Fold this sequence. Notes:
Helix content: 55-70%
Shape: globular
CATH topology: Rossmann fold
CATH superfamily: P-loop containing nucleotide triphosphate hydrolases
Oligomer: single chain
Amino acid sequence: MIVAIDGPAASGKGTIARRLAAHLGVAHLDTGLLYRATARAMIELGHRLDDIEHAVSAARGLALTDFDEALLRGREMGEAASVVAAIPAVREALIETQRRFARRQEGAVLDGRDIGTVICPDATVKIFVTAAPETRAQRRALELAGRGERVDYASVLEDIRKRDERDSGRASAPLKKAADAVELDTTQMDVEAAFAAALALVRAAAAKPV
Length: 210
């Protein structure tokens, strides 16, 4: 079983994906970390984020076991990742890495922005997680504050809207709901309710005859 979960920043897709993977006993890949790790490598090497040649080289050099999430989860890395992810050649360089992960015999849960549309178009179940921008900004502000970062709600909301526009407007693999994906709006849901709703969708998909 392949579970594809897409959605904009701070919609709750990552939390839902991790919970589903743990419940189902399968591997989970937060594909956003691939782009964050690429961006961090670019910054550490002193390259501009829009330097295509070096960005592709950094993406191809990634190993899924090398991620230090503590260094990749901050606001700066989120913005940098959004810039790198808009480069078509970088996305192309990472496609097979993601598909190989998804083909694990035991199954997998992947979350990102183009899983159901590009990476795993034949996924068993596709969920598009969304929420109001204001709700997502509040969640992200709380998350960043919990890491000790100084945050301002208005600037976080502005960042959320900019990322939505960049992710949805890019030429290569833009953020969009797959035609056969089920939309899950988590605006009024807490973590438990969102997980329960997603699990119900997975169970329903698994029960369908092949």
